[in-house]
Amino acid sequence: MKDKVEDIITDEDLIKAFERANFGDRSSKRDIVRYTLLRAASGYYNGYTSQRIIHALGLTTIKRIINEVGLVKEELILTKKGKEYLYEAFRNGTNH
Fold first, then answer.
1. How do residues 5-34 score in pLDDT, each as one tens digit?
2. In CATH, what number does 5-93 get?
3. What is d(CA 62, CA 74) in angstroms, rounded to the nearest whole number?
């Protein structure tokens, strides 16, 4: 397991993943990633852009489910890398 979130996802990776996204100046890219991952792990929807960012970073896979009326639902599943990032991001109550 990596020691810090920066070892799992580099700043260069974040810049590339957020290339066309604009969340304003209120949150850092790492905060957006960690809270999006937390919500995904809890089964909550995050919004299209943030979900695509964590998927592009290799933190999730997408499982598509077709319900009985033919609607497609996407479920995000954390990868090993995603689980490691989530653990490190919230470990000991620190804000990495």
1. 999 999 999 999 999 898 888 789 999 999
2. 1.10.10
3. 6
